[in-house]
Specification:
Layout lengths: L1 E5 L3 H12 L3 E5 L30 H8 L15 H12 L3 H16 L12
Parallel strand pairs: 1-2
Length: 125
Amino acid sequence: MKIIVLGAGIVGVTSAYQLARAGHEVTVIDRQSGPALETSFANAGEVSFGYCSPWAAPDIPMKAMKWLFMEHAPLILRPRIDMSMLTWMAQMLRNCTSARYALNKSQGVKFYRSRSGSVSLWPSR
């Protein structure tokens, strides 16, 4: 089968490699002139439909305080005087209550079950 992989970052290149190993004819397309030139720009973003849970949870403020002192924390903040960051942090903290977490989690179920896009596949000849 002929397959096009969009993006020559780590996910695109490793996907293309595995597809080629499986016997497919693979073409990798990237807007940059070579592979890995925008690697980690979006941190290999993944939409995980099997796990859709809000980040703003009741236990996050205490965890975040510990993460400030960890080199490889799952959430890294570089505290500075920046109004947009302070506004974001205040909004995040307002959503870290049990009630807001339950509401946000219930809204996520609607996202999980919605279909707002499409994927089209065509067999090669």
